[in-house]
Amino acid sequence: MKKLYYAIGDIHGRHEELSTLLQSIKADIENLNDEHECYVIQVGDIIDRGENSKACVESIMNLNKQFPKNVKTHALQGNHEEILCKL
User: Fold this and answer.
1) Residue-wise pLDDT tens digits, 46-75
2) What is this structure's pTM?
3) Spatial separation of the C-alpha atoms in residues 35 and 12, rounded to whole Å
4) Any idea where the domains of the chain sit in the sequence?
5) pLDDT given at position 82
6) Residue 56 CA, distance from chain mean position
7) Residue 2 pairs with which residues in a beta bridge?
8) 51: helix, coil or strand?
């Protein structure tokens, strides 16, 4: 089985861009055959400069609900989330 990884980089509170990216990933996965094991990984820095950090956090917290059950999802803590946790 082929493994396919989708990495989502620094979002920084830009929810519109995150939504667009997630839709693109979903469309790509829908076009694959069953020979692929898919992973969607958010690599941190969900919050910061953008106006919609809360919406971004909510989307990432529900990442697994946005994809079929055979798609594995993971979210990592970035330095921006680490700083927020220390406040």
Assistant:
1) 888 878 999 999 999 999 999 988 899 999
2) 0.85
3) 34
4) 2-86
5) 73
6) 9
7) 36
8) coil
